[in-house]
Amino acid sequence: MFLNPISVSKVISNIREIKNASLIEKDILSLIDSHNLNYFWNNLSQKEKENFINFKEFRQYEKSKYSNISIKIDKIKIENNNSLSIKFLVTSTHKSIRIPQYYNIHYFTFSINSKKKLTQIGIFSLKSPIIIYSNRTFNKIIKIPILMLHRVAPQYPIESEYPNAYAYNIDYHLTLTTTDFKSQLQYLKDNNYHTINMNTLYNYYYYDFPLPKNPIIITFDDGRESAFQYAYPLLLKYHDTAVFNIITGFVGSDKKIQKYMNWKQIKTMYNHGMEIESHTVTHLALGDLNFSEMNYQILISKASIESKLGSSVQFIAYPSGSPFRNNNIPKEKILISRLKYYGYVAGLIDDSFNRNIQNLANSYALYRIRDSNLSLSGFITLITSNIIG
């Protein structure tokens, strides 16, 4: 969750012994020291370094984000030879900083790789958690298309393979062919668009992290295997990134006619620069759920992804856009309070209005462009027009 890769060689041989937890703690705390910026700069990938002009700009960004944060280790549990569970104590003397309670009540599991290093992404990384300053007033209007995709495949679905017309029609209207997707990516490349993820967008919003020219976000809902088979290779080919919103309860299954990615496939994408976020546990409309059911859907999906990948999950795509799409104000207020409690920063609507200009202060109801059944000319119109959200 918060760590840079660190060596645990001096404790790995006896990792089953609880007494070695203090040694691990010493190593970890030395690496989350907010003044140790040279170390973190040297351990960024070349691609991450390219986001900054130089070390000075990197230092300014990191200090603006973490200078008021204190991170200590509350408890460490040694699970086995390959993993640790760590409970943090995250605090701040800065009264305006909102620390989600989730960080201080849950254990985060970290695996140890063959080189005896903790493999999770570091606190001083572009993928590390967004820290919200609650008393700062923002009103950032930005033109940024957020595309919503589901099924990318060589052809449209075949009706005879579906149990009924309803199931077929759903998949038909959620399909974008690989040919059309490739044409879209080629257009983005030729016209100097740059794909970013949700984390980068909100690093820009809260910490003024620079965005590339013509930013655009590509999102995939559900976690269908077809997205891994056909969309993911094209994203790599064009050096693009995307956000995959996963229904964690469907991972590795054949539910609802569709095959879904397994955790190995999801982790492969994550390791190659894709962002993995929540789409709940079983894809139920959140506006239809009671308090405990809503908590389950947003918490367990988040915890599942974090435990499997070691990533920080702070964004959610609402199934059917509920409760925001149907304007259920009471449920919106309840859901936002729970999302804040668990450390979510923003939410994506399944929107039918295809808006691409947004006020980022409206973070829990961001609009998306439905990218399916679109010709290239239709796609260009939607991402280039000034459609206000």
Describe this structure in words.
- There is one protein chain.
- With 389 residues, this protein is of the alpha/beta class.
- It folds into 2 domains: 122 residues, no CATH class; 244 residues, Glycoside hydrolase/deacetylase (TIM Barrel).
- It is 35% helix and 18% strand.
- It is built from 14 helices and 17 strands.
- The strands form 6 sheets. Strands 7, 10, 11, 12, 13 and 17 form a 6-stranded parallel β-sheet that branches.
- The longest helix has 19 residues.
- The two termini are 33 Å apart.
- The relative contact order is 0.12.
Low-confidence stretches: 1-21, 119-124
Report the oligomer: single chain
CATH fold description of the largest domain: TIM Barrel
Global geometry? globular
CATH architecture designation of the largest domain = Alpha-Beta Barrel
Task: Report the portion of residues in β strands.
Answer: 15-25%
Count structural domains: 2
Question: What is the helix fraction of residues, given as a range?
Answer: 25-40%
Instruction: Characterize the biggest β-sheet.
Output: 6 strands, parallel
| Rg, Å, rounded | 21 Å
Q: Total helix count? A: 14
Distance between the termini: 33 Å
CATH superfamily of the largest domain: Glycoside hydrolase/deacetylase
CATH class of the largest domain: Alpha Beta
> How many β strands by DSSP?
17
Outline of the structure:
This protein is α/β, with parallel strands linked by helices and 389 residues long. It has helices at residues 9-12, 21-31, 37-43, 46-49, 55-66, 102-105, 165-173, 178-190, 198-207, 225-237, 263-271, 291-309, 329-341, 376-384; strands at residues 70-80, 83-91, 97-98, 108-111, 132-133, 141-143, 146-149, 151-153, 175-177, 194-195, 215-222, 243-246, 275-278, 315-317, 346-348, 357-359, 369-370.
